[in-house]
C-alpha cells in the first residue's frame, strides 16, 4: 500500500481507541487465552513506545504491531521459552515490576486490518518493529510466530510443519514464516505450549459453533492443532504451538 504511515502509539496516543477497534480475523477462541486476556491490554498502557500503528492515506488504522521488552539472559532463562507467547508476556511484565533491564524485544502481534491483507503490509510492520527495537538500543527481536497456514494441516506436528520448505527456493512453505525468513529471521525452535485456552463445552460451542460432544481431538477452524475434548468431564482444552524466530537488528 502506498502512503502507509507507521508510528508508535507513544507518538500518536489519540489512535489508541482506533487501534483496539481495528477489524481483524482472529478466531474468537484465541482471545480467551487467560494470560493474554490479563496482560495484552497492558502493553498499550505500559509499553506504548513498543506499539506500532499504521494508517492509510485517509488516516484510518490499517495495521498494528505489538511488542514487549524483557530480559532473556536473566538467571534461569537464557533460551527462548517453550511457553512462547504467554511466557514472553509474563516475563515482560514481571521484569517491568522488578525493575530489570531488558535485553531483548519480543513480537506479540502483527495484524493487518480486514480488507487490507495481501498488500505486503505485514512485512512492512515486521521491518518497522525491528527498526523500532534498534532505535531503543536492542540488538535482537524474537517472535513466537503463529504460522498462517498451519490451521489447514492441524494434525501435522508443528516441528515437522515449521521445517517444510519450497523446492524452488528453499524458503518456508508457510507464508508468514516465509515473510520472517525473507526479512532475515532464523527459525530457532518450537514453543509447544505457547498459548492455552480452556473452557467448558458450552463455552467452546459458543466460540466455535461446533457440538463438542465426542471424546478426543476436535479440529476447529482457525486452530493450529486439534482441541482436546472431554465430555465426561465437561471441558475442552486447546494448547497452541508457535515457532520462535530470531531477528538480529
Structural overview:
This is N-acetyltransferase. By secondary structure, the chain is an alpha+beta fold. It is 28% helix and 28% strand. It is built from seven helices and nine strands. Strands 1, 2, 3, 4, 5, 6, 7, 8 and 9 form a nine-stranded mixed β-sheet that branches. Helix 4 links the parallel strand 4 and strand 5. Helix 2 packs across helix 3. The mean pLDDT is 97.
List the helices and strands and how they pair.
Layout lengths: L4 E4 L7 H6 L12 H13 L4 E5 L5 E10 L13 H15 L5 E9 L8 H15 L4 E6 L12 H5 L12 H8 L3 E15 H8 L7 E3 L8 E4 L4 E14 L1
Parallel strand pairs: 4-5
Antiparallel strand pairs: 1-2, 2-3, 3-4, 5-9, 6-9, 7-8, 8-9
How many separate helices? 7
Number of strands: 9
**Which range best describes the helical content: under 10%, 10-25%, 25-40%, 40-55%, 55-70% or over 70%?**
25-40%
Uncertain stretches: none
Assembly level: single chain
Q: Largest sheet at a glance?
A: 9 strands, mixed
Percent range for β-strand residues: 25-35%
Shape category: globular
Strand pairing plus helix content: what structural class? alpha+beta
The H-and-E topology, N to C, reads as EHHEEHEHEHHEHEEE
Terminal-residue CA separation:
24 Å
Mean pLDDT: 97
Gyration radius, to the nearest Å? 18 Å
Organism: Streptomyces cavourensis
InterPro entries: Acyl_CoA_acyltransferase
Protein name: N-acetyltransferase
